Amino acid sequence: MNDSDIKNHIETLVAEEHRLYERADDTPLTPDERKRLDELNVQLDRYYDLLRQRRAKEEFGQSPEGVHMRSGKTVENYVE
Predict the structure, then answer these.
(1) Buried b / exposed e across 11-36, counting CB within 10 Å, b at 16+?
(2) pTM of the prediction?
(3) Residues of the chain with pLDDT > 90: what percent?
């Protein structure tokens, strides 16, 4: 997966997230929709993390192909 593929996937996830948030403006989300929104947030964090890893490798002259997507648990438990 290259940077362009990752960005396209992020855009798809963001569009779905926005649709759910817009729907929530009119009526409460169902438990399944709430669960999906939570899943989307984790997936977005994972893809943004993957993109950051790739860009860091490129910045230091390394191949970005060696990076891997980290688990949701890993990216959700980052300490800043």
Answers:
(1) eebeebbeeeeeeeeeeeeeeeeeee
(2) 0.89
(3) 91
